[in-house]
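Lecture 7 notes: from sequence to structure.
We start with the chain below.
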Amino acid sequence: MSMKVTLDQLQDRLPELLDRVVQNGEEYVVQRDGKDCAVLVSARQWRRRTVGQRLDALGPAYRLSRVKQARAETLLAAKQMRPLTAAERRELQGLLRECETILLRRADALDELR
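Predicted structure tokens for the same chain:
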């Protein structure tokens, strides 16, 4: 969850806020004249977000479709509540194999993006 700080608060408390961002992963939305103008996040979080966006931008071969993602989530939730049918197990195994392939593809692309 992001917390809002004014520009004056940021100037007065920058070392403390930076420590909290780095140590606890907190995020701060900086406001000027009551409007959001910047976000203070750790470099690690920022890299994770930008790399994820760049990987997603590579196209559908680098992410599971929304329909397949939703179906996998549905099957995984059902598996927690009841035994899956043989057809559901096969379907889930296929989706998980596809996820694994995509993850490997993304890992290879990540090496090239760095």
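Points to note: The chain has a mean pLDDT of 92. The helical segments are 7-24, 43-56, 66-81, 86-113.
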